[in-house]
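Supplementary Methods. Inverse-folding protocol.

Structures were first reduced to a discrete structure-token string of length 402. This string, shown here, constituted the complete conditioning input.
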């Protein structure tokens, strides 16, 4: 059998042994090809593990191809995402967008302070997105500035329709579970609403946004697989419920003086260069809609194994990791490996070298390390950390010792 660099079967021997037969036109299903490729990859991984054990005269080992999460201490990990279909870990997690707080103020003001709004649990990747709506006789009002939890926010999208105005702002707010949202309009308005969303694991900039003034309100924006969308729509009729026809699911709907506002979100969306968002109101004099999308960001991941018991106190460890990289990282800087013999209290970094594994982007990353200076113990663990915005897909890891 002959396999090209993509893992596609292009030739195979006949059962009569009469040489190669071209099977590139066979009706092989995509999942068949994927399964064959995966089997070849993991056979190579297991073979490399056995070769390493013999080459370095290692006593014992654990080999984990991540067919499940049983070999990983998920409680000790940080920002790891396990793909149960592909059987790998990656330092990108589908974006999470949750509605945490909604408030209204029906007083005529220029600056509104919505005190102690819930932002959800703190997280290093947390973005707080805020959707605000207002009404002003004669129209023309816009938000001049906004702070979210004391952080200056960035404008994302805004739309005016007659007297109505709807805007989307956001800021990176990694700490605290709540805070004030201060909204300053360009002129006094009759009322103001505020809806806060907790967005996690997203890129540090928005992917796309839209703003529409029509009924029904229909617009499209670009989304990336694993991304999320949040949206708001506003109508002039306070008694007519808003219907989200497509794009998002409603999280909250509330009536202010002179208008009604609905907010919603969609998570783990698929790739779509023209993702449709539509809202509709049966009885309405004006309708406004804004939306924004975020794609998955790259996280600094910590992936730590469960403890494995050695028969005797080891003095040397060998780590082998089967990894896909996509952005020319520097191993030992952007991707680091560690070994411990005392249950994870003490770690020693492994100096890693990378070599191609046969398919583009796939590498075997490996190295040995002296752990004799660590406190004596037989509880063996490995740890992998990623850094500096590089994406790594980890298919498996082996830890050997002697």
């Amino acid at each position: 059998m002959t396999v090209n660099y993509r893992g596609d079967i292009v030739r195979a021997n006949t059962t009569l042994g009469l040489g190669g037969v071209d099977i590139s036109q066979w009706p092989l299903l995509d999942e068949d090809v994927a399964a064959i490729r995966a089997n070849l990859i993991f056979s190579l991984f297991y073979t490399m593990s056995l070769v390493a054990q013999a080459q370095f005269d290692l006593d014992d080992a654990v080999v984990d191809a991540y067919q499940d999460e049983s070999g990983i201490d998920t409680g000790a990990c940080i920002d790891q995402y396990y793909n149960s279909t592909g059987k790998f870990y990656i330092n990108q997690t589908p974006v999470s967008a949750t509605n945490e707080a909604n408030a209204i103020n029906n007083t005529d003001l220029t600056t509104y302070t919505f005190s102690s709004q819930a932002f959800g649990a703190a997280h290093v990747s947390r973005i707080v997105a805020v959707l605000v709506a207002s009404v002003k006789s004669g129209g023309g009002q816009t938000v001049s500035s906004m702070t979210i939890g004391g952080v200056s926010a960035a404008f994302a999208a805004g739309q005016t329709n007659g007297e109505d105005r709807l805007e989307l702002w956001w800021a990176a707010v990694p700490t605290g579970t709540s805070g004030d949202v201060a909204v300053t309009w360009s002129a006094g308005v009759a009322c103001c609403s505020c809806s806060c969303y907790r967005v996690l694991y997203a890129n540090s900039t928005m992917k796309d946004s839209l703003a529409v003034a029509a009924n029904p309100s229909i617009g499209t924006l670009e989304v990336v697989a694993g991304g999320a969308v949040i949206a708001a729509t506003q109508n002039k009729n306070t008694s007519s419920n808003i219907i989200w026809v497509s794009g998002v699911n409603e999280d909250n709907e509330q009536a202010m003086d002179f208008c009604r506002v609905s907010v919603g979100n969609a998570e783990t969306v698929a790739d779509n260069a023209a993702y449709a968002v539509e809202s509709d109101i049966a009885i309405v004099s004006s309708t406004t809609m804004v939306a924004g999308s975020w794609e998955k960001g790259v996280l600094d991941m910590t992936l730590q194994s469960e403890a494995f018991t050695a028969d005797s106190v080891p003095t040397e460890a060998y780590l082998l990791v089967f990894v896909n990289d996509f952005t020319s990282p520097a191993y030992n800087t952007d991707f680091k490996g560690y070994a411990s013999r005392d249950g994870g209290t003490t770690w020693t970094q492994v100096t890693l070298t990378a070599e191609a594994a046969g398919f583009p982007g796939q590498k075997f990353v490996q190295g040995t390390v002296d752990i004799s200076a660590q406190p004596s113990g037989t509880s063996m663990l490995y740890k992998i950390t990623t850094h500096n915005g590089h994406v790594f897909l980890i298919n498996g890891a082996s830890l050997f010792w002697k």
